[in-house]
Design brief:
This protein is of the alpha/beta class. Helices cover 36% and strands 22% of the residues. Helix 5 runs parallel beside helix 6, helix 6 runs parallel beside helix 7 and helix 8 packs parallel to helix 9. It is globular, with a radius of gyration of 21 Å. The structure holds N-(iminomethyl)-L-glutamic acid (NIG) and fe (iii) ion (FE). Fe (iii) ion binds next to loops. N-(iminomethyl)-L-glutamic acid binds next to helix 3.
């Protein structure tokens, strides 16, 4: 038994009956002042005022959280952290005026990382991804979605997914693997797009399904990358094999990816910087989670996704890092939350929901994680701040004091 005693705030973000928070409910995060939490095994057992704590057995381990704030462990529902090498050269080229698309057309961008991943063995990729997960954990992130997508051949995509599986077994984090073989068309298929799509549908997807190597299938649906039709073909095939669906949608151009995500009842549509009015209506109608990635807009110097409009129209908004070597090389998820506040005008309470319960919903896990409620998995982070707003107000630094995964302290600052 682990008891978190006398926190200044315990932020529950309870899910009520709905598995995700929309509209005005997004800011309803149930903050208990001067509260305590009892964890029993891997579950949350009790939450209430410190004054009402039941008598504790002598064997109970006590964490004195006086002056601190307890939140559900953050869920990072969109990362590309299996990669080798860096792309600081492209960062500088963009600062000199080149666009992301121009750099990609010259063979840089995603395909630059593909070259490096193809040369790396499983062990090397694992050793490179591990510290990225350790940094995420140190920022209070206890569950992480991780995509393949820098292999782009059967063997190299399987290799990337094996890295994710190995790191998931290792823990203490919980990883959710996504197959993103449709991240770019690799150079050897430049003149045979149809051939690459066949490879994806006929060989890669069945092999990934057979090996149970991914839970989600994602596509970079974008002008010049995968068209709406190509994305639909691939995602429909994935759904038939039992994959849940995600989509990189309307990131750089308003192609209609959000509408496609809704049509296919995808779990989430991600990025959405260029989402259209019709796209917003479609997501709201189906309940597909809109995962916004303001770190990417920041790093590319682009405009931000219309978070306020999405919230007002009843879309369930989540936030994630997009941690990747090209468009968002950071593991600082609370900083991404600060960007959501200052650049997209989300309230701190809305950001908390977007990083916890709605991010869990974007991974189909809101029943088990993403809020603090008796019976739910004991994934919590204790921050050395007196009030949850300080997480985004005092920005850019790490406020984590302890991270707890499945009832065990797995990180201490
Ligand atoms: O989410 N948009 C596509 N994929 C990544 C970028 C990947 C890269 O440039 O390496 C993203 O922004
Ligand atoms: Fe991404």
């Amino acid at each position: 038994m682990l008891v978190i005693r006398n926190a200044a705030q315990v932020v529950c973000v309870a899910a009520d009956r709905s598995p995700r928070k929309c509209g005005a409910d997004l800011r309803n995060i149930q903050v208990h002042a001067q509260a305590s939490v009892i964890l029993r095994g891997e579950r949350i057992d009790w939450i209430g005022p410190t004054a009402a704590l039941p008598p504790l057995p002598a064997y109970a381990q006590i964490l004195d959280a006086t002056g601190k704030t307890v939140l559900p462990g953050f869920v990072d529902s969109h990362t590309h952290l299996v990669f080798a090498g860096a792309r600081a050269d492209e960062f500088e080229q963009r600062l000199n005026g080149a666009t992301y698309q121009e750099i990609a057309a010259r063979g840089g961008g995603i395909n630059a990382s593909v070259q490096r991943v193809r040369q790396a063995a499983v062990e090397e990729l694992t050793a490179l991804a591990r510290p990225r997960l350790q940094r995420l954990l140190a920022f209070g992130v206890t569950t992480v979605e991780v995509k393949s997508g820098y292999g782009l051949s059967l063997a190299d995509e399987i290799k990337s997914l094996q890295v994710i599986a190995a790191l998931n077994r290792e823990g203490p984090w919980e990883l959710v693997p996504t197959f993103l073989g449709a991240h770019a068309v690799p150079p050897e298929y430049r003149d045979d797009r149809a051939g690459y799509l066949r490879l994806l549908v006929e060989e890669m997807l069945p092999a990934v399904a057979e090996g149970q190597l991914a839970e989600f299938c994602d596509v970079f649906c974008e002008t010049g990358v995968f068209s709406l039709d190509e994305s639909r073909t691939l995602l429909a095939a994935a759904a038939k094999l039992g994959f849940k669906l995600k989509l990189h949608a309307d990131e750089l151009t308003p192609l209609g990816g959000a509408e496609l995500a809704a049509q296919l009842q995808a779990t989430s549509a991600d990025h959405l910087l260029c989402i259209t009015e019709r796209g917003i209506d479609a997501l709201a109608a189906i309940g597909t989670v809109a995962t916004l990635l303001p770190g990417t807009a920041f790093f590319l110097g682009m405009h931000y996704a219309p978070a306020r409009k999405l919230i007002e129209r009843g879309v369930a908004v989540a936030l994630a890092s997009d941690c990747n070597p090209g468009t968002c090389p950071t593991e600082n998820l609370p900083l991404v939350g600060a960007m959501a506040c200052t650049q997209m005008k989300m309230l701190p309470a809305e950001v908390v929901s977007a990083l916890t319960i709605n991010a869990a919903a974007a991974l189909g896990r809101a029943e088990r994680i993403g809020s603090l409620e008796p019976g739910k998995q004991a994934d919590l982070t204790i921050f050395d701040v007196p009030d949850f707003r300080h997480l985004f107000y005092h920005f850019g630094v790490n406020h984590v004091w302890r991270v707890i995964k499945r009832g065990r302290v797995v990180h201490a600052a």
